[in-house]
């Protein structure tokens, strides 16, 4: 883990430096025509926006139990040089727990979908300590390995991060289609009208891009973990989608200041979980178990509220964020 984290730190530092120098001109407005963007052209911010006191999905009740966790692998390709292997975590029948079981039977019910984007030189399974917990709480987590920024790729290209929002939307389209595919284990189990996006570091850039330059109108909420808007800008558009930012103040890869600057530009219901002693990876990859628990529990309550529409989850969220005195919450939800 120590060696892997060092590689991630180095690559992420390259991301910050390269995007700052090369893509400064892209940081204010999205590029491309409206027809190029997933879900059609952008709607002016604030049009048909829900009340700031609630998420944009119908009110509901999130499961109050922990599920077993299943895991499966899918293979997609968005063109010849964009293979997209995808890891899917899902609520499974059987014994509850946070550890995924390959090919486990899907639990009864329909579950919201969360598209997760990894950081530079990482792979989806590096985030199992967090993603297992999301799935155990009742979410299907869809995590592509991006073609030019994941670990082990033959052609590593840091600037390819700006193409990843389109990859993410493509993967989302393919996965949501499984809800009606005869014979697929996920058929009838995906709440295709309750969809969110989340990502860490470069995956945070990808996630912000899904609400700005590459706006995907299917998304109801976002979680940005140690992310920045470099390269994708802060021209948030479309229907209001609540956002939760998580950032450590000791992050020496993507500065807290950069993450906060992106957060400040979000025009919708939002919150920022700040970890005063948090670094770039400890609370996400599991090396800091106490911080991981705070992040996991806070993000779960945010997803329960924003994707299940559960108002009780919104009330519980501040208490989860404050547990142990490890973090503070700027709550504008």
TrEMBL record:
PANTHER family tied to this protein: CARBOXYLESTERASE TYPE B DOMAIN-CONTAINING PROTEIN, CHLOROPHYLLASE-2, CHLOROPLASTIC
Matches recorded under SUPFAM superfamilies: alpha/beta-Hydrolases (SSF53474)
Q: Where is this region: Disordered?
A: 26-63
Name of protein = Chlorophyllase
* Pfam families in UniProt: Chlorophyllase
Q: Which organism is it from?
A: Plantactinospora alkalitolerans
